[in-house]
Design goal:
The chain folds into three domains: about 55 residues; about 30 residues, no CATH class; about 80 residues. With about 180 residues, it is mostly helical. About 85% of the residues lie in helices and about 0% in strands. The structure holds protoporphyrin IX containing FE (HEM). The site of protoporphyrin IX containing FE has 22 residues, from helix 2, helix 5, helix 6 and helix 8. Protoporphyrin IX containing FE binds next to helix 2, helix 5, helix 6 and helix 8.
Length: about 180
């Protein structure tokens, strides 16, 4: 079965790679502008002056737009995984490629769990717009909790994500072992 699939898709190796690399790029970099130039400045401004109602409105708006914009990254991620698996089959890659094994370990240990949490807090239970629309107007507690949880998630994971992405790119391009 594996051999048959390998033979069927092997001629398309470079076409699959043409999907993998752009998907990886979109997954890695699509949130950078929104994060560094919108989310971080608005959170810093609000932290300095939490009683300013205008800043709170702006903070909520930016966070909700961020939840929405991160969809681009979250559509790209399954494509990264799928094209990656197809590359392995098409290219006949195996455990002898230790760079690939390390790359996959990093992805399984650090990236996949983080993405699962990220999907959840951006689009499912932690989605801010959804919480705002469903909650009654006097009760902002769930909204505030979700927003702060999400912010802490970013503060903790951002340095890790940066290092892991750098490591995975290094392993994929340089293939040092
Ligand atoms: C999560 C983030 C990932 C990143 C940042 C990433 C990055 C890359 C990059 C930049 C390349 C191009 C290397 C080159 O042309 O020399 C590549 C190739 C490759 N990736 Fe990924 N990848 C990721 C996920 C995956 C996954 C999940 C798999 C497998 C399940 C996978 C399997 C492969 C394979 C087999 C190649 C082919 C290497 C080659 O032809 O040189 N990747 N990856």
């Amino acid at each position: 079965m594996y051999e048959l699939l390998h033979q069927m898709i092997a001629p398309y190796y470079l076409y699959i790679k043409m999907i993998h690399v752009p998907a990886v790029t979109v997954w890695s970099f699509s949130v950078i502008m929104g994060y560094y130039f919108f989310l971080v400045p608005v959170m810093q401004a609000w932290r300095k002056n939490e009683s300013d109602a205008g800043l709170a409105i702006m903070r909520n708006w930016v966070f909700e737009r961020f939840d929405h914009g991160v969809k681009v990254e979250h559509y790209a991620f399954p494509l990264v995984l799928l094209s990656g698996v197809l590359l392995i089959i098409a290219g006949g890659w195996g455990p002898e490629s230790r760079w690939l094994m390390l790359k996959l370990s990093l992805i399984m240990v650090a990236v996949v769990p983080m993405e699962i949490v990220d999907y959840y807090i951006s689009h499912f239970h932690g989605n801010k717009r959804h919480l705002r629309e469903k909650g009654d107007n006097d009760d902002w507690e769930a909204y505030e909790d979700a927003l702060h949880r999400h912010w802490w998630f970013f503060l903790i994971t951002t340095p890790l994500v940066g290092l892991v992405i750098l490591g995975v790119f290094f392993l994929a391009f340089i293939k040092p072992f």
